[in-house]
Design brief:
8-stranded parallel β-barrel, 10 strands
Length: 309
């Protein structure tokens, strides 16, 4: 499955809508909220993504505009906005300290049956206990409101006392320990985790076949990074990819989503997808942000490591 994370307005302010582009595809300032909504409507009509995730306020507006009427695309809203996602506020320093739980959404008013809840473990007993208590409160309210949810587990956002190579094992163990105390009716529909390498992904995906594992997109990177992440995550057991910046920062979002689908379906390799995407941009008369040769480079170390291994 492919999910488009258009919930960035809950992580910051005006800059989170992404870049407005002129007729040649050249960046020309930030999108307004209504321009952002129009882009989301275009992608819903395209009918390639399986899930469209937005903020509760934008979901309400999309519903009012009839964006999901007759569409098979599943609407979803972000249910919480802990402090580690407040990272796009200009001048903000919220990510410098361990995540603290917070939720601005009233689940009873949110206009989507499916919602995303995120949690961050920092190997800090006080911070992690607060996060788990907030998660327990959320589950009770979600059941009362008739909501289903999927769980996003971020990597530590503060010094956790171990090396980056140990992050995947730490996160996996935290996930399994957390879910162990939940009955079937309390468990998430699926997980969304960072790609911490082939071994960590495969370990989590094979541990319990009842847990559907998805991968989150992370930073923008090159388009080769984007497509390679889908290919590797699926190879090692992931069944869903949820991308935000990797889609929102693309020169032409419908085209990159089309190629994401081909990679996910095994119809194109990551390098073939980059070349195909650049051909699409050329046909549309849009200038790419990077030259093709530069865009074919894998820049994320964790992806290169899996290729070497």
């Amino acid at each position: 499955m492919i999910a488009d994370a258009k919930d960035a307005d809950m992580s910051g302010g005006i800059m989170t809508t992404g870049l407005r582009r002129d007729d040649d595809g050249v960046p020309a300032g930030s999108r307004t909220r209504l321009e952002f909504i129009a882009e989301i409507e275009t992608l819903i009509r395209q009918d390639i993504v399986d899930i469209m995730l937005t903020s509760a306020s934008n979901m309400e507006l999309l519903r009012q505009r009839g964006a999901f009427a007759g569409s098979p695309v599943k609407p979803a809203i972000r249910a919480n906005d802990a402090t580690d996602v407040w990272g796009v506020i200009r001048g903000g320093r919220y990510r410098d300290t361990p995540s603290r739980p917070f939720r601005s959404v009233d689940l009873a008013l949110a206009q989507a049956e499916l919602c995303l809840y995120s949690i961050t473990f920092n190997n800090d007993a006080d911070a992690d206990l607060a996060a788990l208590r907030a998660f327990a409160d959320f589950r009770r309210e979600a059941r009362a409101a008739g909501k289903k949810y999927f769980l996003e587990v971020f990597n530590p956002n503060a010094q956790a006392g171990f090396s980056s190579a140990e992050t995947g094992a730490f996160v996996n163990d935290c996930i399994v320990r957390t879910l162990a105390g939940l009955t079937a009716g309390e468990r998430p529909e699926f997980l969304k985790v960072a790609y911490n390498g082939a071994r960590a992904m495969e370990e989590l995906a094979t541990y319990d076949p009842s847990i559907v594992v998805g991968v989150l997109g992370g930073g923008s990177g090159t388009h080769r990074d984007t497509f390679e992440l889908v290919a590797q995550a699926e190879k090692y057991g992931a069944r869903l990819a949820l991308f935000g910046r990797k889609i929102n920062s693309a020169e032409h979002q419908p085209s990159i989503i089309s190629w994401l689908r081909r990679v996910a379906d095994g119809d194109a390799s990551s390098s073939e997808a980059v070349r195909g995407y650049h051909r699409d941009l050329q046909a549309l008369g849009l200038r790419p942000d990077r030259a093709l040769d530069d865009d074919l480079v894998i820049t994320e170390e964790v992806l290169n490591a899996a290729i070497v291994n």
